[in-house]
Give the backbone structure.
Amino acid sequence: MSKALDKIRAGNDGLVCPKVGSWAETKYRLVSLYAELFATGMKKKWKKRVYIDLYSGAGYSQIQGTSIVLKGSPILALTVKDPFDKYIFCEEDTELLAALQTRAKRIVPNADVSYVAGNCHAKIDEICALIPKALPGDNVLSLCFVDPFDFGIKFETLHKLSAFFIDFLVLLAIGMDANRNYDHYVDGNSTKIDEALGNTEWRERWRRSGARRREFRSFLAVEFARSMESLRYLPQELHQMKQVRSDEKNLPLYHLALFSRSQTAYRFWEDVRKYATDQPSLFEE
């Protein structure tokens, strides 16, 4: 097995292990690569580096129909070469959170980890309170991974976090969700996308665009990037995001997008997109 695959695969430890699609391997490879570059690249520039995971899960997951077990984003972040100084993991499912705590304690027993039980949107004030306060000569930079099951992000949550020096790696799970619920979203009966984008004007922009229904996914990804610009994040175009498709029918599932106020972060992200295939380059000493 290559170093890149070895980095994200694990053995079955008997704890709860949710099933995921095979495309999750691509997602975790991207997250692992970026967390590694971020943690090492920012080590000498910031006094404290914080990793935040809003949808932490159990720490491990298993690819449906196989025996392959994948390390989730919290475990990948805990095991980077230059560990973060602080970790904040939020998970609504108490069984998954308990499994994550057990795994994290076993794998990295001395890591500084805070666990938040509950919905990340309801618990956002608690999460913010756990981020170390920046002081003169003691600056703090955070990386927040946002990995919801569907397009259920609430922009207000990211708005609150953006008060800190923080970069976001966001999974825009708009593929199947946008396709199945298109009419419900566009006709205004659902406020889900309004809450994800932080505005209601997107409907009029969609109507004026004259785009076809199949382009709705890309439209929402671009709209989300524009919303992030309102929080003083640098512009992100669609081609700068990583689109992940299903293995079976090659259907678009989601976009993985980085949002930062620093061009350095985007140089890291470009490296990740370049080496996201099964190559060991970024893991070599």
About this structure: DSSP finds twelve helices and eleven strands in the chain. The chain has a mean pLDDT of 91. The longest helix spans residues 24-41.
